[in-house]
Amino acid sequence: MSGSVKIVETRAKSMISRMRDGFFSMRYLPFRLTANIYRGCSHGCVYCYAACTHYYMRSSPNLFSKEIYVKKNAPEIFEKEIAKYEQRKRKSVIVIGNISDTYQPVETNYRLTRKLLEICYKHDFPCFIETKSPLILNDIDIIEKLAERELIGVGMTVTSYDNEFTRLVEPLVPRSKFVRSPIRQKERILTLQRLSEIGVDTYLHITPYFPFVTDEDVERIIRDAAEAGVGNVIMAPLEISGFIWNRLKKVFKSSERYSSLIPLYEKRYFESGRKLGARITTSEKEHYKLEKKVSELCKKYGIGYWAFNNPQFNTAVISGAYRLRYPILLDYWKLTHEKGRLRLKDALQFAMNFPVDKKYLSALQEYFLNGELFKGVYGVRKIVENCEVVYVPA
Ligand code: SF4
């Protein structure tokens, strides 16, 4: 046991997962490979989308932050699997820690993330880390070596500059010993600054964007990130499931300042929101307004914006580890506008410039023909020309 967190050591049979080519991944995810050393995450974010993955451990989402499974043999298995991808010439960016923060406090004892980074370096394999934790700077030496070969990207989440709100929704993310700011989440921007200075491809993740809260600070956050030399911004509004809503309500209720969010969120999500798989998100109209606002702020402060839902707002230049990625909606949207029309054979040919596999190509064919690839997207429409599906700029 470490504090009130129970650590369970396990042995993994496999380390690299290849994500499914579903609606969400085909449109928005530039990666398919993921590796998680830890199951569970002691950061305890009340909005965590990954908590339900504890069901796979025959445990409960309520224990996600209290029961951490450590795959002790992770490096050994990871290296074997990396070598297989290398042999098949299928090197595409691998996200380390997509369902648990790989730099949560337990990493200080095990240093397994560091070992995975060393393996990526040894095999020239591109990787991406998304974290909220300042502990990433413990590994700045190996990260710098990876950055010299453009093999690493790092994204850090910043959603609010209000310390009370941060304590409510992300109660256990550690403070930084490397960089200090009276604003807790600003330390993440300062961490990104350190990483940008050594050539790492850096991303500010405003994920999740909390309606009525992030609004207060979003301009300062984007300005600070731009001044810190961060490469691009990614934004996604908060999504709510029944489990997440119960937890959010509890913490909002406990705060005099934030209890008024409950009726506002009920209206925004349960009255006018839309379903997104098992969760509810804000309406298309709200999402559009938010993307427009964030992209305008990014333009104002000179930082790229990687627009996923509304490609017309994109200003991001994708480089670094994401050179070796899977194409997404944004790429096909741009291609349609460049070529004036997009046929299936063009889309497939384009995709083959990326390190995609056969599964992806057959999913692309399906999503292209059934219209899901561009469904509801601004600026592109589907036509049928000589019995062939074609997309044209609208
Ligand atoms: S850091 Fe990420 S994985 Fe960990 S609790 Fe927070 S949202 Fe979940």
Distance between the termini: 59 Å
How many DSSP H or I helices? Answer: 14
Q: Could you estimate the helical fraction of the residues in percent?
A: 25-40%
CATH topology title of the largest domain: pyruvate-formate lyase- activating enzyme
Averaging pLDDT over every residue, what do you get? 95
Number of strand segments: 16
Structural class: alpha/beta
CATH architecture of the largest domain: Alpha-Beta Horseshoe
Any idea of the CATH class of the largest domain? Alpha Beta
**Number of separate structural domains:** 2
Question: Ligands in the structure?
Answer: iron/sulfur cluster
Query: In terms of quaternary structure, what is this?
Result: single chain
Return residue spans where pLDDT drops below 50 for at least 5 consecutive residues.
none
Gyration radius (Cα, Å) is 21 Å
Lateral arrangement of strands in the main beta sheet: 2-3-6-7-8-9-10-13
Short description:
The protein has 394 residues and is of the alpha/beta class. Helices cover 38% and strands 18% of the residues. The radius of gyration is 21 Å and the shape is globular.
Please tell me about this protein's structure.
With 394 residues, the chain is an alpha/beta fold. It folds into two domains: 6-326, pyruvate-formate lyase- activating enzyme, CATH 3.80.30.30; 327-394, Arc Repressor Mutant, subunit A, CATH 1.10.10. Helix content is 38%, strand content 18%. The chain is built from 14 helices and 16 strands. The chain has helices at residues 23-28, 74-87, 107-110, 112-122, 140-148, 163-169, 186-197, 214-227, 242-253, 261-271, 284-301, 329-339, 344-351, 358-369; strands at residues 6-10, 16-18, 33-35, 38-39, 67-71, 94-96, 127-131, 152-157, 201-209, 232-237, 274-276, 279-281, 304-305, 342-343, 380-385, 388-393. The protein has an eight-stranded mixed beta sheet. Strand 7, helix 5 (140-148) and strand 8 (152-157) form a beta-alpha-beta unit. Helix 4 (112-122) packs parallel to helix 5. The longest helix has 18 residues, at 284-301. The protein is globular. Bound molecules: iron/sulfur cluster (SF4). Residues 41, 43-45, 48, 50, 100-101, 132 line the site of iron/sulfur cluster. Iron/sulfur cluster (SF4) binds next to loops.
